Each structure stands twice: as C-alpha cells, then as structure tokens.
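Hi Q.,

Before the meeting this afternoon, I wanted you to have the adenosine-5'-triphosphate prediction in hand. No need to reply - just skim if you have a minute. The sequence and ligand are here:
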Amino acid sequence: MAQEDVFKKIVSHCKEYGFVFPSSDIYDGLGAVYDYGQNGVELKNNIKEYWWKSMVLLHENIVGIDSAIFMHPTIWKASGHVDAFNDPLIDNRDSKKRYRADVLIEDQMAKYDEKIEKEVAKARKRFGESFDEAQYMATSPRVLEIKQKRDALHTRYADAMQGPDLDALKQIIIDEEIVDPISGTKNWTDVRQFNLMFSTEMGASADSSSKIYLRPETAQGIFVNYLNVQKTGRMKVPFGIAQIGKAFRNEIVARQFIFRMREFEQMEMQFFVKPGTELDWFPKWKATRMAWHQALGFGEENYRFHDHDKLAHYANAATDIEFRMPFGFKEVEGIHSRTNFDLSQHEKFSGRSIKYFDPQTNESYTPYVIETSIGVDRMFLSIMCHSYEEEKLENGETRTVLRLPAALAPVKLAVMPLVKKDGLPEKAREIIDSLKFHFNCQYDEKDTIGKRYRRQDAIGTPYCVTVDYDSLKDNTVTLRFRDTMEQERVSISELNNIIEDKVSIASLLKKLQK
Ligand code: ATP
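Predicted structure with the ligand bound:
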C-alpha cells in the first residue's frame, strides 16, 4: 500500500475509534484544529505522564511549573516574537491558495532526494547481491547530477533564509519552476512575511495597549519564572524547569493532520547551566532525549538527528529529533542551546536583574540554557503511525491492530463475559472492581467474542480476559494477548501481578535508568 494511503487510513482510524476528531465537526471543522476523543485523551495523557515523570521524577534538579497562556505583551517583544516570528508566504494567483515559500522550496529539495532514492533502488534491482550503494552514489553520473542540483539549491536556500531575503526566495521558486500543486501554474505573487502569533484584547478598552498574544511557545513562561523557582525551590545551577501546555500558531499552511496545528500542546524543559558549560550539556540532553524516544521500542532506524546548519542568531547549537512518518522523516522534537539570549532580553526589557548568584564562587551571572521542546500532538501522531497495522492472519482474514506500547495504551484490560446472563456479567464486573484502581479497564458484553477482540485490537488494548462458566467454578479466566493473539488460562487473583507492571509508566521509566 502506498504510504499516502496508509496515512489516510490512520487519519480515518483516529476518527472512527475515538482518538482524534476535527474540531467543530458538525460545523464542518475548523482549519488545523482538532479535538481528542475518549481514547485519544487517554493516550495523550499517558504520553504527557511519561514525559513529565522522565523529567521531574528521574531528575532531582528538574521541577515543573504551569504558567498562564496570557502573558505580558512586552514578553513577546523581548523574546523577538513580535518582530521576527514570521513565515515567508506566497500566493498563487490562479488557485488563490497560500503557501509557505520555505516549504515549497524544501519540498523541491525532497523531490531531488526522492529522485536519488529511485535511481538507487533501480540500480539495486539491476545489480542484485553485488550492489555497493556507497560506490554507486559516488560514481553514477545521473545521481551526481541530481545531487549537484540539490546541493546548489540547498546553498541558495540557506543564504536566502538568512535575513530572510524575500526576493531571493521568490527567485528560487521561479528558477526551480515550482508549480502550484492545485492550479499547476507558476503564477506567483511576491513573497511576504506573516507573523504567526494570534492576538486578542484584554479587558474592556480595545486600545493598542491592551493587545495581548496567545503564547506561540511555552518556553517564555519558564524564562520569566526562572528566578521565582530558583529562589523558592532553592535550586542550584545546573537545574531545569519543565512545563506542559498549549501553544498557538497561526500556521499558514495546515497540513498532515495533527502534524501542524494552529492550537497544539508542547512539553518543554529549559535547563539552566553555567556559561561556558552549555556545549557539554547539549550532547547529554541529545542522548537523554533520544533514549526517551527509543525506550518505546519503535526501532532505532526510525529516528535520526538533524543538526541545524543555519542557527537562529541566539543559538550556538541546535538539532531536531526526526521520526520516520509515512510522509518521510519529520521533526518531533527540537533541542537547542539558546545561550543567555532569552534571560538577557527579559532583563533588558523588564529592567529587573534576574541574575543567578552562585554561592560557591560568590559570583552573579545570567545562566545559559539548553532547551528540549517536543510537541505532544506530533508525538501522538508518530506513535499512531508506527503502531497501526493491518495484519494478514493465517486464516486469510485481516485484523487492524494498534501495537501501542502497553504503558501508553488508552485501555489496558478489557473484561468480557462470554454471555450476558447466568452471573457472568456480575463476575466480570467483580474483576473490574478489583483492578480499576490499578489501571484502566473496560467492560464489553456486546457482539461475539471475536468481534470484541477486534474492537480492542483496534484501540490497542494489550490484554483481554473472557469470563466463562468455568470462571464461576474455579475463578480462572482466559487471558488473551493483543500482539500474539495467544490465550492462556489464568487465575483471577493473578491478573494484577501479570498485567500491572507491564502497563505502568514506571515500566518505561525503568528502561531509562539502565
Ligand atoms: P516546524 O519547523 O515544523 O514548524 P518548529 O521548528 O517551528 O517546527 P519549534 O518551535 O522548535 O518547532 O517547536 C518545538 C516542537 O513543537 C516541534 O518539534 C513540534 O513537535 C511542535 N510543534 C511546533 N509547531 C507545531 C504545530 N504547528 N503543530 C503541532 N506541533 C508543533
């Protein structure tokens, strides 16, 4: 199946099984805004819990906060967002559609990459066993030609984005003969800057002084509180502050479902370090965060770092953790060494000293910051993409199964009476009543057992138990495992022992301690 079709299936699966709905669905939705349903919210909460505990529980020197979405408008002046949080946009006069100029160019680069991949795949087929990819890449005239075009484009693009130079971006689009995917024409307007922050007014008077913004990132709430936390928590540098919360960006092009939303959620941690030590901490956080992703067991080959060659003016190192989505490797998390830019700016704009006093050396300084910033929704999407499978069974049937890590699954155990009578429902409810304090259980008595198993497979429930007539006599049930579909007879009193450990967030956290 083409990757595009797989992705479409995942999107409709999310809706059909109560994971993600378009927002305001009965009014035909609202662009790039989504709601999480009964299963989605559980999965999302589990992702957040995994992240939060990995930061706050596993690190003595990291604490959390929950700052307000509304903040003093000068904060966004100080952070640079009012002046520079822009995307370059371009319109196609024929389709009347709006695009991000940088995305059009990046897509063009991806096309060159695809061409190279195709050439390599063809050659692999042709040469079979004896194929040497590295040698082919280095010598094939066709590949070299495409690669040269791609690299030239990359250099031009990186130069144009410095500043950015809007005319140069437009010229690239013209020279590369990029066409609008909808109208198929090259009838482009000039490139303009567009600020991504949503604004609104606070209070009754609507003069310009009351204009405030919906935060485009949660990080600034951490920066402006860093000294409050440091003092009240008696924190010593190095220390970190973690936060999970909503962020808002008026994205020009909303694409790929919950990958790019206008209202989304971030999990950010700012780690405050002594100036000069930041480049020692940066690789440590890269490794720590990669381990967090890989503990989910999706396979190392599905992640990669993408180091930035073009750094923001305030950063001295930056990388993305990318995950292999059905539409290619995409950023799910950014790790940035942000120097002391933000704290210094807030010091300047607020007129307050927010320096840290180091009791050991008796000196005051503005700490440097390593930031780890991950989108909850993108993480959610990567998990759904990796877990979704249409599995061909031996009997010729196909089952749709979500192979979610058990600790993240919305429902951990489904309890099913074989029939709706003779005391079996009561027995099933008894089991739920004894286990519901430990993990999320679901009662299901409708349809055949086979259909009920399929329903649970589709939402990723790792365990099901069936209560039958023998259960009434000997207090045993059939335990069925989602991944293998194997079944085992076990005693009801054993269920908690068998399941609790495997479905707990602690089971994931323990992997990080190794
Ligand atoms: P992109 O280049 O994809 O726009 P970004 O580099 O602007 O992302 P950051 O500002 O570094 O992203 O934000 C950190 C994380 O927040 C991203 O890695 C991503 O997971 C998430 N994120 C950012 N923008 C969005 C969005 N519009 N929708 C969903 N998640 C987002």
